[in-house]
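Summary of Year 1 activities. Much of the first year was spent building the evaluation harness for sequence design. The harness presents a backbone, in tokenized form, and records the residue chosen at every position. We chose the following record to illustrate the format because it has been used consistently in internal testing since the harness was completed.
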């Protein structure tokens, strides 16, 4: 199949493209650097010509509430319109576990809006909600930094390796679209404070972790389900220690 990966030069996009090519498919990495801009619509018609599947792993360059909403809204509307014209048979989008339960997060509101646009867009779809990536545990630590301490939520998380996300997206892309949302997570679950603290310990970060039930997550209030998936998510195989050992 011919599969266009929008955002194909990024962390997840590169991995999805590599996995698709290993499966023998014609995978094309499309991004502004290659003349394809899903927000402006530039290059979409040409890029999608003859495509069977589109995988959307784009991300907003700005996380300001208005910017991120505009990015995902315009990008998704443009992609769906171009796919309808090109006769694309499957739209695969990477979203975030918890997008529907964190309304005080502008980023999560934007992702939930994106999901709803896809569901109403008329193109057969699969939405893949992934948990946070191992690669971003350091950024979570820094988001809670207070001098020599790091204050983090006790809500649960179940992070995953970016390699496993790319592999899962490739599997989904070549499968049959069933107009469903699936969740993807890593094999180990613990609190945000404990998991990020584990990462910090492995890195030799000496800051003290303060586990606080009231701590915000990038400005968002955490519920009891935190950023962990529902029951029985699809699990990536890579455990934290194995990932850290080769990171």
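For this record, the design step produced the sequence shown next.
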């Amino acid at each position: 199949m011919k599969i266009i990966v929008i955002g194909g030069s990024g962390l997840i996009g590169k991995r999805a493209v590599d996995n698709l090519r290993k499966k023998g498919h014609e995978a094309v990495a499309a991004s502004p650097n290659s003349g394809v801009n899903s927000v402006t619509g530039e290059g979409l018609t040409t890029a999608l010509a003859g495509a069977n599947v589109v995988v959307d792993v784009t991300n907003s360059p700005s996380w300001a509430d208005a910017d991120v909403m505009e990015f995902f809204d315009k990008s998704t509307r443009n992609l769906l319109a171009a796919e309808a014209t090109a006769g694309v048979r499957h739209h695969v989008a990477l979203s975030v576990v918890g997008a529907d339960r964190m309304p005080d997060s502008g980023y999560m509101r934007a992702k939930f809006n994106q999901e709803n646009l896809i569901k109403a867009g008329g193109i057969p779809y699969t939405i893949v909600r992934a948990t946070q990536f191992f690669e971003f545990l350091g950024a979570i630590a820094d988001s809670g930094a207070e001098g020599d301490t790091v204050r983090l939520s006790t809500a649960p998380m179940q992070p995953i390796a970016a390699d496993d996300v790319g592999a899962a997206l490739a599997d989904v892309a070549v499968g049959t679209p069933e107009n469903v949302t699936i969740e993807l997570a890593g094999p180990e679950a613990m609190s945000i404070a404990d998991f990020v603290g584990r990462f910090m310990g492995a890195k030799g970060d000496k800051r003290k972790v303060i586990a606080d039930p009231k701590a915000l997550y990038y400005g968002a209030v955490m519920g009891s389900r935190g950023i962990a998936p529902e029951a029985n998510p699809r699990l990536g195989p890579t455990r934290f220690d194995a990932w850290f050992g080769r990171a």
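The first helix runs from residue 11 to 22. Quantitative recovery figures across the full test set are reported in Table 2.
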